[in-house]
């Protein structure tokens, strides 16, 4: 028991130190996994290293490389510009459009890639007299919705970890839960902030500089590594001016769009027919095709592979493997059972996921808590799919907090006069999700799952 508590205490301490010092938690966690495994678990070093999740590595690298090519050859920027041009003049649709745009980009491997549209969205809000809070929440919920697609990081980690533990969880079901939850939050945002207006900007058509479209703010502060092209956004609401139409698609961009559609369609068809699609291998296959057609984009895309997330998830899951070998997860399961009320334990676990994610890495939180939730699932009547979905959504919907990367980006991209108000309101919204999320998901997902299961 003492060795187990020490190993668990080291895990929590390393996680906290990494989050406080803003370093990759997985890199710090990996050597501690080896040290604890050798000294406390009496494991061989090759057994410790064998816990590194190679399957998740293939998923993350394959998917982020494929969509990195789509960013490098300008396909993603073309889609964003074309969509904005189509909606010009219909102001009430802009938040929904930016929800969809952010969700689409977030679904392409790296959720934070969805921040590419943050400066554009906030500029649109200012020029069209929309409440910046509505636009920020629209993009934040879109990012959360897209992040749980089978092709994106949160979905890969959540579904992959559950699948490795033998929990039946369809990746499409996980995505559907995330989309529905975030659409409801978008509707709430419309009700709360849809009637608010801000001072209109200049009547002239405004062009977002290339740096801003790439994730930078109008002042040049970098917000995201994605995007290269300049995007033209609508001018003042009184002018009704249309946005400038994007240039025609090149052959490479058209091929990239076809590849994206085929990737998504293949995943959906295989999932519906009861197969388990290896999304990483599919990503590598389509990426290889595009790299042969456009070698320059293929070379450029290698820098977009999300190695940070690979190391983050790998280090945490390797340590969790050591904890499993030591029986720590079984001990936690017994402790959860001792609470006497599995539902209370589930709510507390979801609340912890949300609270930590509001200040630290959502990716790291998912990698750590999904495995730690397995004992609760195994020792109670709580359905595994519902518990895992609830943890995932609760970890993500708090990301609009200004203390996180996502929320801070939206505040920085807003007009200077709006930032104090947005900081306050995003703090209230994000922290309220720590309480509301677990309660609502327990009532609408976990309890019905227990009844029907």
From TrEMBL:
Pfam families: MatC_N
UniProt domain Dicarboxylate carrier MatC N-terminal: residue ranges: 1-147
Keyword line: Membrane, Transmembrane, Transmembrane helix
Membrane-crossing residue ranges in chain numbering: 52-70, 96-122, 134-160, 172-193, 254-273, 279-297, 309-329, 335-352, 384-413, 425-447
UniProt superkingdom: Bacteria
Record's protein name: Di/tricarboxylate transporter
Species the sequence originates in: Janibacter alkaliphilus
Taxonomic lineage: Bacteria, Bacillati, Actinomycetota, Actinomycetes, Micrococcales
């Amino acid at each position: 028991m003492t060795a187990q508590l020490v190993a668990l205490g080291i895990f929590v301490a390393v996680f906290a130190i990494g989050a406080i010092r803003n370093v990759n938690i997985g890199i710090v966690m990996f050597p501690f996994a080896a040290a604890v495994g050798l000294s406390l678990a009496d494991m061989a070093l090759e057994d410790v290293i064998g816990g590194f999740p190679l399957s998740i590595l293939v998923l993350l690298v394959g998917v982020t490389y494929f969509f990195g090519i789509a960013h490098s050859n300008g396909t993603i920027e073309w889609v964003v510009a074309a969509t904005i041009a189509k909606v010009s003049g219909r102001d009430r649709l802009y938040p929904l459009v930016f929800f969809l745009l952010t969700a689409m980009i977030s679904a392409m491997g790296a959720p934070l890639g969805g921040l590419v549209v943050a400066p554009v969205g906030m500029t649109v809000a200012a020029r069209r007299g929309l409440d910046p809070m509505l636009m920020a929440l629209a993009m934040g919920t879109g990012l959360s919705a897209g992040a749980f697609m089978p092709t994106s990081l949160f979905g890969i980690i959540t579904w992959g970890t559950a699948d490795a533990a033998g929990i039946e969880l369809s990746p499409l079901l996980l995505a559907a839960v995330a989309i529905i939850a975030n659409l409801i939050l978008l509707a709430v945002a419309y009700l709360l902030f849809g009637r608010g207006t801000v001072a209109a900007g200049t009547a002239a058509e405004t062009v977002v500089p290339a740096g801003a479209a790439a994730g930078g703010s109008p002042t040049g502060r970098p917000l995201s590594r994605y995007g290269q092209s300049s995007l033209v956004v609508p001018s003042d609401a009184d002018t009704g001016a249309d946005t400038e139409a994007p240039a025609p698609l090149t052959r490479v961009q058209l091929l990239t769009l076809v590849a994206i559609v085929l990737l998504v369609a293949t995943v959906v068809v295989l999932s519906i027919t009861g197969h388990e699609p290896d999304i990483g291998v599919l990503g590598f296959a389509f990426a290889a095709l595009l790299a042969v057609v456009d070698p320059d984009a293929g070379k450029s895309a290698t820098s977009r592979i999300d190695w940070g997330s690979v190391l983050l998830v790998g280090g945490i899951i390797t340590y969790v493997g050591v904890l499993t070998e030591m029986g720590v997860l079984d001990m936690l399961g017994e402790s959860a059972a001792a609470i006497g009320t599995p539902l209370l334990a589930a709510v507390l676990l979801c609340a912890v996921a949300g609270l930590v994610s509001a200040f630290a890495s959502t990716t790291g939180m998912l990698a750590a808590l999904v495995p730690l939730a397995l004992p609760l699932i195994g020792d109670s009547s709580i359905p595994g799919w519902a518990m895992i979905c609830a943890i995932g959504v609760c970890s993500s919907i708090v990301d609009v907090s200004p203390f996180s990367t996502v929320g801070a980006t939206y505040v920085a991209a807003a007009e200077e006069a709006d930032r104090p108000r947005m900081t306050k309101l995003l703090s209230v919204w994000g922290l309220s999700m720590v309480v509301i999320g677990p309660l609502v998901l327990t009532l609408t997902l976990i309890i019905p799952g227990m009844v029907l299961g």
